[in-house]
Specification:
Length: 107
């Protein structure tokens, strides 16, 4: 779990990451951590319910990985999903792009 490329661009240069603790139980929509950038401090929310099974400790010393590689080395946490049916409520790539395009219509 992490943030999208679009989200990291909107956030700007990430300078600090407050990460969840391994073993923490999460409910969908609850805050799991915070990313601080040169522009803002933003909460990160869990897209699904589950338990944090691993945290990307690399972000403690190198939070810029969120900007450099949001879909690879910039991940935040791995979850053991409680209810896999929640995955069906998440955007796929095409739906997410459509959502972004609606937020920022091209003139």
């Amino acid at each position: 779990m992490g943030i999208s490329d679009y989200a990291q661009k909107e956030l700007g240069d990430v300078v600090f990451a407050e990460l969840p603790k391994a073993g923490k139980d999460l409910e969908a929509g609850n805050e799991i951590g915070v990313l601080e950038s040169v522009k803002a401090v933003s909460s990160v929310y869990s897209p699904v319910s589950g338990k944090v099974i691993k945290v990307n400790d690399s972000l403690s010393g190198s939070p810029e990985l969120v900007n450099q590689d949001p879909y690879g080395k910039g991940w935040i946490a791995k979850l053991e999903i409680k209810d896999s049916s929640q995955l069906g409520k998440l955007f796929d790539t095409a739906s997410y792009q459509k959502y972004i395009d609606e937020l920022h219509p091209k003139h």
